Each structure stands twice: as structure tokens, then as C-alpha cells.
Amino acid sequence: MSTVELDVVSFGTAYSYDLTEFWLKPAAEKCGFDLKEYSIYDPGIRTFKTLGQYAQWAEQIRNGTNEWDLRQVMDEACFIDGGEQVFAEYPDRNIPTIPDHLQFARTVPADQFAYLVAWRKDILGEDAMPSWADFFDVKNIPGKRCVRYMPHGQIEVALLAMGRDVQNELYDPSLTKEQIEKQVDDALAMFDRFGTDVAWWGASYQSHKPLVEGEVVMGAVWNRRVLRASEDLSPGVLPEDSLLQANPATAVVVTDWWLIPKGPRQDQANELLICMLTDKDVLKSAAKWCELQYNLIPADYMPIENDFLRHHLEMGSYKNAQRALDVDPRFWGKNFTWITERWNKWIKAKRQQESIKHRKY
Asked: Could you give the CA distance from residue 40 to residue 10 in angstroms, rounded to a whole number?
């Protein structure tokens, strides 16, 4: 038995089980490491209220009581102020299978997905190809929209609908907080156009029914949800013949990442990551996970034979040349908490409006 035992944490459910079987275990065997019983990710950071859990992680890493060696996280956790004090960084790490724009010293990409505009052809017409501007155009295209219940990604799509340059008008690190606040307020005003005629979703499966049953005119949903809903609506057809469509030019691509805490096993955890992303045998095994509808990095080294699956997964990745935007983890690491607090305040007001609308007298 190996003398090195690593504890790896992910998001739980079947996602983590498959990740372990097809990607982590083969890499650990190659490196001669043992994996502890697989940890299920505590979804506290997905409550979208604060990054308080990060503070717990940081304190545990500082005092040596941290129990995990590698953790999969959403991008707002990667670049929080002070992260360089608790997370391992490898400035000379250059993994040839990863695109340059996803190379960072502190974190390594795990998988990708994208928010994009999806619609049914029997509702909007055979030739429809709505943009983000169309998504927010309730005057000319009335009807309910499907929107995620969090600001991450939603702020960006609203600004894109307004024709804003997100890189320069939201992500630019030289912007003041007041300038960013103006952009956030403008984005919230765009969502006000929907009034109470919104089907909110938090977990991806909650956007499935509104799409499949035609409850919404359009949805701002993940590419993988479009894939699964398309399979239900139009099984066995080519992507262009599916009743459910999505515009690849609207893709706002989000990345999930791996973080390594500073500690006695950080170099072994980094070795495991490099093996996961470069070893040919490991990548061949990980490709089986892609066949289960996940878009792993590096996608170029895990070809997908199924045309329908490849079409939908590539729409939500860096391989989509038409994509509108790559979400910047550095921006959200710095601004996640206060933007989420402002978003939640706005959501609370929306709930009160809905309560009044449905109140019986």
C-alpha cells in the first residue's frame, strides 16, 4: 500500500462517483497514491449568500486541521483576497493540454458549462435564433423566461443584452467599486423587465420541466440541460432537427476548478492533477465520463464520438468559437459576496411582488 493517501472532495451525487471511477482513481493508481474514502462536498458555498465557508477552510489550513488535499470548487472560491496565503501556487506549472487562458498558478480547470439562450422551435418558429437582447425584449417577444436564481453569470448576460463590453466595463481590475455597482444595478434593471413572469431555477434539473413542457418562451440555462431536455423532446435526431434549440453565440462559459491547500501533501496533490490532465491512459478513461454528458478539461484530448453529445458539450466549452464570454474567476473571487448580497436583496423584493400578485382577498 502506498504511504501517500490523498483526500479529494467534489460536488457529490453521481457526478462525483463517476469522476472518481473514471478520472481520479486511474490517475491515483498511475501515481502510486491511495485515495481516502471519497468525500462528498458540503454545498455550503452554493448557498450564494456569503463565502463564509472559505473562511473556515482558510482557518483550518492555517492551523493544520484541514483534512482535504484537493477540492473541486466553483470559480468564485479560486481568487478570493488572501487566497495566496492558504492555497498552493505553482507559477512554473504549464500543463500543455490546457489552453493558455485557463492556466493559473493557484488553480487548475476541472470542467466547463455555459449559460445560453434556449427555446422551442414550435414556440418561436423554425428560423428563430434569439440573442441575449431578444431574451430581455419582452415587448416584442412576450412570455415567461427561465432564469437562474443567482447573480453569477446572470449579471453578465444582462450586460451582454445591453451591448456592454463585459471585459472592459465589468471585469477590468482598474474599475472602482462604484463603477462596478453601476453595472450591477443596470443588470438588475434588465431583469425587472420580466416582472413576476419568471420560472426561477437553482439546481439545473429545475429548468428541465419549463423547457420540455413549453412553460417558457426562452430559458437562460446550461448547455447540459439543453442536451438532456433535447433527448426527452426529440430522441435520436440530429441537433439541428431537435425541437429544442440553443444559440451557441450566446454561450457564457463557466469553469469549475481544482484547489490545493498548502500543506505536507500539496506536491503530491499537484502531481495527481498533472497526471489527470496529461497521462494518455488516464485521459482515455476520463473520456468515458465525457460520454456521461460532462465537459472535462482538456476536451481536445478526450474526443467524443457521439455527434449529438459532442455538439451540446462543445457549446459550453472553450471549443465553442462563437461563445459570447468566458466568465472571469478573478472578478468573482473579489466581488462575489457583495454582489450576491445585493442580488439577494433584489430577489427578496421580487418575492414580495409575487406574494402580492397571488394574494387572495
From this structure: 6
CATH of the domain at 306: 3.40.190.10
> Are residues 192 and 331 located together in one domain of the fold?
yes
Dist. CA 135–CA 286, nearest whole Å: 36
Count the neighbouring beta carbons within 10 Å of the beta carbon of residue 96: 9
Confidence of residue 194 (pLDDT cuts 50, 70, 90): very high
3-state class (DSSP) for residue 145: strand
**Boundaries of domain holding 136:** 113-253+327-336
pLDDT tier at 74, thresholds 50, 70, 90: confident
- Return the higher-pLDDT residue of 283 and 350: 283
CA distance 94 to 103: 7
Does residue 244 sit in the same domain as residue 332? yes
Residues 228 and 82 both lie in one domain: no
Q: What is the pLDDT of residues 211-251, one digit of tens each?
A: 999 999 999 999 999 999 999 999 989 999 999 999 999 99
